Amino acid sequence: MKTTYISILFFLLMLAGCTDFLDKQPDDMKTDEMVWKSRKETEGYLANVYASIPNNDFNREDPWIGCSDEADLTWNVYSTYGINLGNWSPNSNFYNKWGTFYKAIRASLIFEENVARCPELSNDLITRYKAESKFLRGYYYWLLIRQYGPVVLIKELQPTDADWNNYPRASFDECVDYICQLMDEAAADLPLHWQNETNNLGRPNKIVCAAVKSKVLLLAASPQWNGNKEYANFKNQDGKALANTTYDESKWRKAAEAAKQVIQYAENNPDAKLRLYKNNENGDGTQFNPYKSCVDVHVKLWNCEVIFGRTNNANPRSWMIHASPGPNNLGGVAPTQRVVDAFLMKNGKPIDDPESGYVETGFAENGSDNWNPNNYNLTTDRIKMLADVRNCVSRGHWPGEWNMYANREPRFYASIMYNKRVIPQLPDDVAKRDYYNSAGQKNGYARVEFYYGGMSRQSGSYTFFPRSGYLVQKFNDPQANMRDRTYPQNYGMVFIRYAEILLNYIEALNEYDPSNADIRKYWDLIRERAGIPSAFEATPGMAGNKDLQREWILRERQIELAFEGDRYITTRRRWLAHTEDQGGATDKRIYGDGGRMWGMDINAGNTATNNFSFTGFYKRVAFETRVFDKSYYLFPIPESEIEKNTSMVQNPWW
User: pTM higher than 0.90 for the full model?
Assistant: First the structure.
């Protein structure tokens, strides 16, 4: 059993007549005897404080995927479309979480002030519930500062007639300090883990608190907030600076220490069951399969790598509908060519390394070493072969696929659906698989057709297709049946996993102690699980070189955490998102959220004659030109909130 998913039972409390509590004014809540005399109602109130934590969502609740340089969402009904084209302002209210999070913060303060009034709760439970509420308040402030920068800190419950014009923004460092204070105070009254009380999975514990501190302090140490002189004029009306423009190396040390605390919790407490997920260490076969491990870590509920998350069947299933190829699915979550190119070769080298073995053009004559490990006959053993595909036994590229996708690392195949690849998440029924192929290409395997006129890229008014010529395969359950939309298991939403903490640690450590042996130790663990050689073997001479190690650590984040929302945050905290498009026939940048975004040529050729042998599809072309101004590093505070609090200044350049 694993880790911190909010249990279904816990969230059923939200449906127990408590959903209107947060709509009441604070003074109403303080005198509402019904709430605080009943354990059920009191715990229901706490459940409502939890309820404002947003799901990791590709379109509805956050912009992290669709507004980063790693992916495109084909639908113009989502706010990412307007943001990427520069069509927004403080009045747009795109992904407006300001009021939602402050409402939850106020609710946490109300809860802490009143929970001791409940006679049906033991003193131990009162103490623990207060700690959970403190964690939640700190977590909501974390969500606020990552989106808006420095915010107004409300540390005590305010009267309903408070004059909000007297509440200016705190500095970014003050916000960080307060969040860390809340995490420390909460951790003091929380258990290390919930492994012995699975009904409490999903609640915070000491490990979760330390992990959140790791994320907060990494943001604070990064160039956006550590010595960024472009924020020199970012001040309150009284002249108080909201950003520190003097670089402080010790912030990296604090970030590393916070991440190391999580690592020490994991290493020193086997009962916490926290480690990188490997299939053979979790009852799934005796042999390590890096591809299967990289697939299952994102679809296996409560696996050993999850630090913080929640049970949620709706959002992962919605993701699969939107990311699986059409027809019958909405397949339009499209990786850019930049992230496709970022994935390494099976020898751990980048595609532009002369020793990588990468070939840009032509069809592969042979498959990978493990494409058909049981030597099945593709005609007579079709069902057995499909079982190997869906069980992740068959892995890597097949003969006849484009060389660009040949001999890549396991994480590539776990993350990217490319033209002509067999679709895993379909049943073995011939008719259901052939539904996804054009006439002349129906062989019961369902190889995806992204080219112009293909079944997953039809012409005319059919608009649900990936504009880059790729789909995200990550988070798709290979055992699901996306023809009939049936699912074999329950799923969860993951907010923090152990691999991110390892990456946080080595990134922070590199900035002040680049020769520290821990950098290789924990980086190698990630590479080992990915099934590729150490970064130090693939890039000789890198050891101890801060700049080179930084470059490759950020690339490791881009790969390992692809489509998990990290890329958006990382390029902004590293002050790299405004890297300009210099023009030219191809994309030579590795950063930059403005300018041209690239993919395959989905409009090439003729719909009447295009098929898998058509090579014109594999030309790199720009599918969109985006706008990114420096103002976009932070979301604007909604104009309606500025009007409520005239002491609150707007974010830079808005």
Answer: yes
